[in-house]
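Q: What structure does this chain adopt?
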Amino acid sequence: MADRVALPHCSPSKISKDTLTAGAILLVLAVAARFLYHYAFPYFAFDPKQFDYYWPHRFRLITHISGGILAVTFGPFQFWTGLRQRAMNFHMWTGRLYLAGVCIGATGAFLMGVFTSPKSFGVALICMASAWILTSGIALAAILRGLVNLHKEWMVRSYLITFGFVTFRLLNDNLPFLVQRLGGSPEDSLANLTWVSWFVPLAIYELFLQSRRIFGAKQPA
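A:
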């Protein structure tokens, strides 16, 4: 009887971390592209009906939207480790465009917040813009000092706030019953939704990050 040939055991190939990251980035870009197409780009037609009561402050709003487009679009590329390793110049330039978008978008948000009514919504917008600038500034300071891991963490925080503008629309359009319960009036609900759209994702990220550090740390003998 002929000897049987033992074939090497082939384990199913695992999906690499870089592939998962690339997939997540593409998903984020797809959601962001839909948001920009439906909610951002129509403002550039400068139709008074589109601006509604923001028409007198249209240039402040356009400044905010323009910066937001840059930040939402170029931010995800900062988290693609494989791409960063292969094309550092691309990583650096998309990072600069992202930071430029944050500065422009936050400036527009500050200007809008001052003139926005009700004041509760204006305060929420100013606080969001302040957090946007601070997290991005710390991320920049970290990489300038060569603190790569710290830079990554603060870039995640920064982009969670950037994506808060998308989260705001997703919640407002798809969960109206939840939004209505965030305040006693439509104005209060929108103001509170502004807080929820960035503060809650940021808190979840911090909980995940710090839990991983605590439970992953080696206990002293």
